[in-house]
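Researcher: Good morning. I'm working through a list of sequences from a screen, and I'd like to move beyond sequence-only analysis. For each chain I'm collecting a predicted structure so we can compare shapes side by side. This is the next one on the list. No need for commentary yet; just the structure.
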Amino acid sequence: GDAVMKRALVTLTTISALVIPLGAQEPVDLVMIERIKAEGLERSEVMEHFNYLTNVIGPRLSATPAYKRAADWGVMKFEEWGLENAHLESWDFGRGWTLEGLTLEMRSPRYFPLFGYPEAWTPSTDGIVEGPPVYIGDWTTDDLRTRGSELRGKAVLIAQPQEGFIEEDRLQPADYEEQVRIGAPRFLPTQTPADRGTLAQLLYDTGVGAVLRPNQGQHGTIFVLGRDNPDTASPTVILASEHYNMIVRMIEAGEPVTLRIAIEGQFHEDDTRGYNVLAEIPGADPEIGDEVVMVGAHLDSWHSATGASDNADAVASVMEAMRILEDLGVEPRRTIRVGLWGSEEQGLHGSREYVARHLGEDNPDNRQNLSVYFNHDPGTGAIYGWYMEQNVAAKAIFDAWLQPLNDIGVRKNLMDNIGSTDHLSFTRAGLPGFNSLQDYRDYDVRTHHTNTDFYERLSEEDLAQAAVVLATFLYHAAMRDEKVPRAPIS
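Model: Good morning. Structure tokens for this chain:
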């Protein structure tokens, strides 16, 4: 029966208007959804995009040659598939940084290779820092001021042993009717002699050789971020907490520990711009062709892994959604535009710059013409639905579009808001932006901003599914008579 039904549906693809109202009479094009599923599930290219980003290009820290390579590759792929107006848009960001060498080992009382990653934008050490480290986790701020000379040129363990670890992911959003905790788990800092700013300044002033810090990950998981603070930055490595704690406990037990540390980094100052990648399938309707349905994901990543779940999976699925629509020869009524954003990790820079440039108050026509922005970021793999940002009218529409995708694992749209990602650049400007609802298993505990965020965390089935969901939503938003309703301004 199923096979016959599928064949019947495929023969109907010549009739473009098999449109069946679901829910509140929202039209749903079941024939197009079948075509999208066939292309996206049976002829998927999503793993080629994903593999290229994660394994071939690798980490894509902002303003690095690797990031620029990824952006140029995105333009090339969109052009290759036949999208129009594929181009980069740039803005001023600042310098980039790439790690070029790392030595990290305990030399005595036994040899032991240490496991850690320098923070992004950390300065290089002055050659090799070798000798006994100094533990200051139980010092006071006054101790730092009076005894700072003891730290010059030394490796310094700046925090007490890490006691608390992130042991639970945030709740699975699709498992609950009412969300209990949407955001990431509480950050688990460690006790240090002073607040972060004061400590950084004092350590910089004393001329420490290298700073060692623990983190909130366990089982060798290391949460690694970083920022460019040239005025107070000391060479800094974040160690696996088990290794950090072991060294502190050895020192406290009176064992004579010797470490050997060297960081070699390269600052990139030739090109200090950030880049967004943009491309589109132009709208064909003479009345509403200038209206825009938009989808985006961020192309940049952190540097201690290959940025697989954050956010190459989403970029690959967003790109694949555009490939599917282009490949099917869709002629959307509205323009369907894709944005791959830069520098999300440093504060949503790429999407904010795009919105400021094209959708600000001085661009009333563009603002009026934006129907909807779909963002794809926090979480991994498959799309379960959308965070609806308290937009009741839009939820009824999204629910209708979601229903025919139940067979590929979508679940529900939630009324809740979500923070910390690129749709905020749109919603803060009073524009309709929504973020996908994804899977959080092992996300907060294991992969998010850590050294474990590699290709193996994702499956082809999930990435292909997400592309089909995205293509379906883009198509329907581009084809419906009206724009997606905006939430009433509260």
